Request: fold
Amino acid sequence: MALTTNKHVLDWVKEMEDLMTPDKTIWIDGSEGQLRALREEAFRTGEMTELNQDLLPGCVLHHTAKNDVARVEGRTFICTKNRDDAAPINNWMETDEMKAKLIPLYTGCMKGRTMYVIPYCMGPIGSPFSKVGIEVTDSIYVVLNMDIMTRVGVKALRQLGDSNDFVRGQHAKADIDEENRYIVQFPEENAIWSINSGYGGNVLLGKKCFALRIASYQGKKEGWMAEHMLILGIEAPDGETSYITAAFPSACGKTNLAMLIPPEIYAKQGYKVWTVGDDIAWMHIGDDGRLYAINPENGFFGVAPGTNEKSNPNALATTKKGTIFTNVAHNLADNTVWWEGLDKNPPEDAQEWTGVAVNGKEYVANGGKLAHPNSRFTAPAVNCPCLSKEFNNPNGVPVTAMVFGGRRAKTAPLVFQSFDWNHGVYVGSAMASETTAAAAGAVGVVRRDPMAMRPFCGYNMGDYFGHWLEMGKKLGDKAPKIFHVNWFRTDDEGHFIWPGFGDNMRVLMWMLARCKGEVDAVETPIGYVPHAEDINIEGLEEKGITLDVVKGLLDVDKDLWMEDANGVEELYNEIGERVPAELRKQLADLKARLA
Ligand code: GTP
Ligand code: SPV
Ligand code: MN
Reply:
């Protein structure tokens, strides 16, 4: 039964029924009873496996198709009327042309299946910054994930009221045919079409498709920002909390930084770290002129491999109940889960992520991995031991500092600060990182990824840079300070030099000291770099970190940076005319300083 009298919603759902002709339609109300029934159905059909309910209450395991394990950037499109409004960094096709191509794929594709209608709200219910979407899907996996990742059901419809202002998302698994897989955004129409995938970012339409691609376009029009950023708070012993947002590309450390455990030197003084978000920030200028961030999500879709008791105990604790595990290994001995880096004891009797049963010997002989490198957990935010008490604050939290970063084996130092906002926008636009398993394709190749938004910007990248500059003008001297970090410098043997994880707080503390004007820095051609003595390394000797090592981590090699500037120039040339003149000037100034 329809849960709303909103005519725009009803008309659109009817249109979806006519197009995809499901045998029946079920509206998701968000009640526990309905979700339980769907879980049981998924256990019966084998779509999901119920895990050990004593050890992992409410937890389930799901395997996707082998050809469907990550976002597919090559098959992701931004469709607009005019090419230049989305291209050339995005794949583009004219709106009507794309629809004509996809409609035959959708026609009748839910025959024999059930269509679920999921009303959901991105952002806290009642927040003026929240936005509603409706996703139709033929996947119970999607319903259960959306229930964790967003605010689902009647409450979302109530937030929408009679309004037509909702994002229409149509997802169908169809045949999981990679040749006909499309993830398509129509920002000018508030619409998302996804077909032939059953994996995370391709099908949980509230996440990357809406909260970044569609929302970045809305933000440009409406004067706010949707960014691929974590949000964390550092509470000082006097109780004052400063908030930092950080943009790193996929699988480059957002979830880990957002949930970090303070090192002993800070913990004993009474510092605490609180998580507001681990992937996406929506930011508005508040009444006081400062920038405020909300997390539009309600859960964490985190990378499993590498998550363990030492690296990220908060994330691990978050996954102990009510969690969906995707493409991790199944420990058959006790019906639990395992992934590379969880501990040093891979289960002997296991099913690898593909579902193939292996024993310890075969696994070693195959040299393979038990879990897929992009295997994930979908866990409710409320489970998180360090969840900020501001998580549901409808106005968000004020941002003191913004951070950009990526995986750079050499060029980028541990940290530097931009000279000012516009230079910071240049630094963000110049981001580069080695690719990871979060997207299909080669891993470890350096590519330019402006603001970690290359795969997620819903409009022309040059216009997007322009929007950043505009926001800076409006914020004036209340703008957050902008920094750049790199946790991933390697030594000659390819090992990471900096210990990372909780120890990254030492770098955040330098940033906050800079924001308060408590510490000076060295002016270099690329920005302000710390005096090595100002990064607190007390207690790091056992991890091989000495003052000299820090000096090495902060070193700026002018030749490498000139090469990097040339790479940025190539990117700007590729984007073309819409790159703001101010950024061209920033680039020219940088080159002059390096020469
Ligand atoms: P998405 O969910 O794809 O957006 O990823 P993310 O940016 O949240 O990355 P996440 O925190 O899940 O980390 C991805 C991988 O990077 C994991 O394997 C981590 O163990 C590793 N990682 C995270 N932080 C650090 C760090 O400070 N140093 C090192 N060496 N590795 C890290
Ligand atoms: C990312 O790839 O940045 C993710 C995972 O956060 S996904 O939802 O698949 O995009
Ligand atoms: Mn992400």
